[in-house]
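hey can u check if this looks right to u? its 325 residues, i copy pasted from the old doc so theres a chance i mangled smth
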Amino acid sequence: MAVTDPVDIRLLAALADLGKAAVHELAAKVGMDPREVAYRLVALSGSGLPLLVGVESDPNGLRAAIASAPPSWAQQPQQPPQLQRPPGHSGPHNVQGTPSGPYNVQGTPSGAYNVHGTPSGRYPGPPSAPVRQQMAPPPRPPAPQQFAPPPMAPADPVMSTWGVPQTASWARGDEQQVTPQAAPEGKKGRTGDVMETQGLEGEQLTVQLLEVQDPADYLFSAAGYSLEAGERSVVVHTEITNRGNIPFVSLPDNYLELLTADGKPITKAPVSLTSRPPHKIGVRPGETLGGHTVYVLPDATRVVAVRWSPRPEPDERTLTWSIED
């Protein structure tokens, strides 16, 4: 099989150098998201390449994690209700003895259910006049009684228009005013500032922007990469510290972005430089780790800030460093 995707080629080249590696180690080497690396490896392994993607675990640790999980995970889905069969048909279930067929009782065959006295025939609902009794005997067993559902009461026009009192349905749709909510903003600083924030799982983190090399084309070229005409590279050096007791298990610069003068974010490039080592996945409690992130952008783009966030969309945990003088 011929591989044409340049990202897949770079990923396979790194894997060929390592021979055997964990997904997060391979992702750190090429500077990519571990989830994207795992997805690409699984897709490549199914395309006929001599590649095997495996999983290794601690069985005792997994059993302990499962034991602490809520019992609802083991609930089996309920079976759908079975359709009721019409009376007198046993379906595929066979019983011993004479085949069941329609159920016969002693005496006069039941047929449809008969009531004492004159057969009632169809029940037309609440009669508006005295019911006439048919005295002539029917030529065949009467049809079973059928009851018409009671008529529904007409909807209250006041309730259907305005809703139940003391509820939000009293407000008219054309008079509702939606108050726009401002997007939450995190902390802001300048290059060199150390700012505290939290991870998605409540991790107590400290992030520092140490350096922004713009441009960094010589570092990019020294690592064996080439830029297109009208492009430049930028290298950002950050450091993260885990101040709490909860391990930070993500890639520290997974959502580290550059901000342009018009407010547009620029995400990192899937490139790692040998002279500027990238971030590694995970920061243990009490540990401080640093790493470099590479960006490729148009040469005319003006970068004004660097933004860190634990998730794709900025929120109150987001940190922003201004890099303009």
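Helices lie at 6-18, 23-30, 34-45, 59-67, 157-162, 217-222.
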